[in-house]
Amino acid sequence: MGNNDETKAKNEVTQLEDTAPAAEATPDHAEEKLTFRDFWDHRRVLGFCFIIYLLPINFGYEVSMVGKLFAVTPFAKQFGYEVDGTWVVKATDQQLVNAASTIGLFTSAFATGIISDFIGRKRTIIAACLICISGVITQYFSNSILMIFGGKLLSTLGFGLGHSLGPVFVAELAPTKMRGVCLVLINTTIVLGQWLNSLVVYSCQKYEGDMAWRIPIITQVIPPSLLLLALTFLPESPTWLLINGRNEEAAKAYRRFNGANFDVDAAIDVATVAITKEQEARKEQESSSWLECFKGTNRRRTLIIVMVYISQQFIGVNFVSGYLTYYFRLAGVNDPLALGQTANAIQLIGNIVSWPLVDRLGRRPMIVGGYTIMTALLLVIGGISTIGTPPALSATVAFMVLWGFLYQATLGAVAYAIGGETASVRLRQKTYSINIMVATAFSCLVTQVMPYLLNTDQANLGGKISFVFFGLSVPVLIYLYFCLPELKGRNYAEVQEMFENKVPARKFKTYKCDSALLEQSEKKDIDV
């Protein structure tokens, strides 16, 4: 009977592991559909998730900010020069500003785990908020590109800590059935930040002086300030408290997150099993080599994760998310800020559409299908932009907005699931670190080249830049079609078995695993 109880606890352990949805769920459980009742029952958890995700709003705000600032005429006058009646920011200065975001995110991604394990999740968030606020204030008082660079580096490092910590914190408190929605919400808050930035920049266009760009910058202090206030009633991570032997505080945290009727004793028992399992995995991980991520079946798994994330750069997400408004202004669109604000609002709707589709359609159909449509649209956008007439410009803008909607409804949301489900448990930290390095490097490359492709005093490609991304996305699409597996509803034992047996990607969905049958029989014994 003791063995059965331990087995049951291990099957439930995913409620508190920092992994992707359905990491350890049985196939039957994975097929359960969320209802409105589930959202109501777990409203406290969802509320705390939105609090923890306040800093990722700054992440989306910042992604959208760069291109829009370059599109604000007073900013261009302050830091740029005039070319044929149009004020532009020098390409090298744009590169410097973009580099600040890249360096900040790259550094914070690796620092988060070390800092949060040492001082706790809550204190890490406090430090992140203070660093972010100091960087925003520095940008607000900037009178040179170098000051903008320094302030942006600080603010990016701050909200980068929050962005990297958020999914881990949420995975440690979210119930198994709700974890998928809770983790997808981080992308929702990112897109929300993009839309809010568009709204603020648009509202400030009435100002003719520096306030047209200083106000959009200083408003970035709002999310971290709200988070600092919310931290007065946000508990520490129960898992972190248990790891450090603070069981009574962990029990109080569980009640705060889930309500007075929550079964704290059972949760602590499950968490104890999870902590033991994770410590064992860490011991194995310490003896493993980074090179092991590129050996045997792990090479395939690493490549899948990396390709999904860099596919975002190859298909042009940085252009649509960060430079779309700047392109609108260079192309002569009437009221580019208003149009950019509308485009970001539509992208937010697209992200919300992804919520029910991730578990209904599956990962592979959404990514491969969405990528196919978006690649075709790139060719259409590039072709129309060569016409050069006002109706053609209107059509180009419309298709770009549609493209952004499709991106957020498919690849933009589902990439988080692929990153969490595909890596092996033992190597997942190393694998994801490699993914961060590669994705950040490609993002940096794209943002450094973008000004030269768009500026009127450089290549001045305009909408024809879509041809560049079309050429990059086609080979990636071919790879995704033949190599991206479907992992919806699969636990880590099943995933491990399928990779070890070298199952073709397109057969993952229908493959019958021996481990799944064994788990089903064990579950029947437990229920009896």
Automatic annotation (TrEMBL):
Transmembrane regions listed in the UniProt entry: 45-61, 96-115, 124-141, 153-174, 181-201, 213-234, 303-326, 338-358, 370-389, 395-419, 431-453, 465-484
Biased composition (Basic and acidic residues): 1-11
Gene3D superfamilies: MFS general substrate transporter like domains
Cell compartment(s), UniProt: Membrane
Keywords: Maltose metabolism, Membrane, Transmembrane, Transmembrane helix, Transport
Major facilitator superfamily (MFS) profile domain span: 48-488
Protein's membrane topology: Multi-pass membrane protein
Region (Disordered): 1-27
PROSITE patterns assigned to the protein according to its UniProt record, in alphabetical order: MFS (PS50850), SUGAR_TRANSPORT_1 (PS00216)
Keyword GTP-binding: no
GO molecular function, one term: carbohydrate:proton symporter activity
Listed SUPFAM superfamilies: MFS general substrate transporter
Swiss-Prot/TrEMBL GO biological process terms: maltose metabolic process
One GO term describing the cellular component: membrane
Database matches in NCBIfam families: SP (TIGR00879)
Family, similarity comment: Belongs to the major facilitator superfamily. Sugar transporter (TC 2.A.1.1) family.
Designated name of the protein: Major facilitator superfamily (MFS) profile domain-containing protein
Species: Cylindrodendrum hubeiense
